[in-house]
Specification:
This protein is an alpha/beta fold. The chain is about 30% helix and about 25% strand. It binds ligand PMT.
């Protein structure tokens, strides 16, 4: 039993995890990217989605090595997983033959990303504590690759303070927590605890390793804002919003993957700074304005994905405001509009905004495109678990004479499509080199 030396996983746990690790290599001949993934599967009802998850990962050119617990075999067979992954499934830390072929330490090094999906409350607790009684947790402890967990469990277990405190600790340590989703559960109840859609997990996990595009933004500088801002009221309070930074960070990664020199100006988020780019952390709209303007002159493209506060308190109280009256008013003043100010520069970059709207989405977005004098805007319906703080998103991109819809998909996939569209319009507008840096290898004489 790779989950617990003493026996079964916690029988009260409704859904148990799967692990995936992933690594990337460049094939020198055709510059295609192969991603190696170690996927660990533990027992739980969501484990039945594992074969689909493996297929979604393989569709993205990932090599998948499955590490399965004994409990997982109650829900999905090793035979099925071996068939879809194309590799023998690992399940025992003490399997001499398998260890001789590739030891658990080699496996931990082989992984570029380790994914646990679904991740039970129990496995989260083990990873937090550093316990490594089985192959899966041993790999988690021994790997230097990014680790992603897709929790899946009963909603009461998910909301339990112990699980929430473990989630917080894992996030503080840089472990990516994907989901969970909210909805009806295997136990017949409804709440947060469903494993995310396998396609969203696969896209997000593959996005954790910096891939390579066709180099269409090679030599271009792209400045991106992401995340929320915090506008202090007093030393302990601030005004903010629900932006997680996921959309902006995904765009930053996608632009870097296309060869761009990326400058990411980020509000306070719990995401790890993406590798291979300059990241500036700010808090307030004013700081975001200043840091953006320090770097945006001479940039080729500016993308404003941040949810910047429109208003901030007129004054920041030096001491904590005491509660006295039944009512109190807060006087607010407009924050600088970063996007409009960049578009108004003498020689502005190709400027792309987002419009987060709850109603009249496209009309309001087009009005922002025109009044702020932008090259492009992504109309983003938000609210009701859409747009803000989710792993997926849907937008309609507008430009002066056209539009393109992007249906709901993982933010990592959406970001790649947006960057492709932005690059196409950037070259069309500026008239500069439109040739993507593709090398075509042909067998024909
Ligand atoms: O971060 P996530 O959780 O992944 O969520 C993504 C997102 C929903 C935040 C993102 O996709 C999005 O829609 N970002 C824009 C949010 C927003 O503030 O929209 P807005 O309609 O209020 O602003 C319009 C545009 O002006 C935006 O590009 C914004 O960055 C920019 N702006 C707004 C105010 C301000 N003071 N300065 C600005 O630059």
């Amino acid at each position: 039993d790779t989950t617990n030396q003493s026996g079964r996983d916690n029988p009260f746990q409704l859904e148990m995890p799967v692990i995936v690790g992933l690594s990337s290599r460049i094939d020198c001949e055709n510059e295609a990217l192969t991603v190696n993934i170690v996927l660990g599967i533990t027992g739980g009802i969501a484990a039945y989605k594992a074969p689909d998850l493996v297929r979604r990962l393989r569709e993205r050119d990932a090599e998948v090595q499955i590490v399965m617990t004994a409990s997982a075999e109650e829900f999905v067979t090793a035979t099925a997983l071996q068939a879809v992954s194309g590799r023998p499934v690992r399940s025992n830390l003490w399997d001499k033959e398998a260890e001789a072929a590739m030891s658990h330490i080699e496996l931990a090094r082989w992984a570029d990303v380790v994914l646990v999906a679904p991740a039970t409350a129990e496995v989260m607790a083990r990873i937090v504590s550093g316990a490594a009684p089985d192959l899966l947790t041993t790999i988690c402890l021994a790997t230097e690759a990014p680790i992603a967990l897709a929790p899946a469990m009963n909603h009461v277990m998910w909301n339990n303070p112990a699980t929430q405190s473990n989630r917080e600790l894992l996030e503080q340590r840089g472990i990516h927590i994907l989901g969970p989703d909210t909805g009806s559960q295997a136990c017949g109840e409804t709440g947060a605890g469903r494993m995310l859609d396998p396609d969203v997990i696969a896209a997000t996990v593959c996005g954790l390793s910096v891939g390579k595009g066709d180099g269409s933004l090679q030599g271009r500088t792209v400045v991106i804002t992401a995340g929320p801002t915090r506008e202090p009221i007093d030393p302990v309070r601030y005004i903010t919003n629900r932006s997680s930074g996921k959309m902006g960070y995904a765009i930053a990664r996608a632009a870097a993957a296309q060869g761009a020199d990326v400058i990411l100006v980020s509000g306070p988020v719990s995401l790890q700074p993406p590798p291979g780019m300059q990241v500036f952390q700010v808090n307030t709209a004013q700081e975001m304005f200043e840091v953006t303007h320090e770097h945006v002159r001479g940039a080729d493209i500016f993308v404003a994905a941040a949810a910047v506060a429109d208003y901030r308190p007129t004054e920041i109280k030096p001491q904590k405001i005491k509660k006295r009256d039944e009512r109190m008013s807060l006087e607010l003043v407009r924050c600088p509009d970063i996007l409009a100010s960049v578009a108004a520069l003498d020689n502005p970059p190709f400027t792309v905004g987002f419009a987060a709207e709850t109603e009249n989405v496209e009309a309001y977005a087009r009005a922002k495109l025109e009044t702020k004098n932008l090259d492009m805007i992504a109309a983003n319906r938000v609210g009701d678990d859409q747009g803000f703080d989710t792993d997926d998103n849907a937008v309609t991109v507008l430009w002066p004479n056209g539009r393109q819809e992007f249906t709901r998909t993982a933010k990592t996939d959406l970001a790649r499509s947006l960057v492709d569209l932005i690059a196409k319009h950037f070259y069309a507008t500026t008239g500069s080199n439109t040739e993507p840096r593709l090398t075509v290898i042909s067998n024909l004489d």
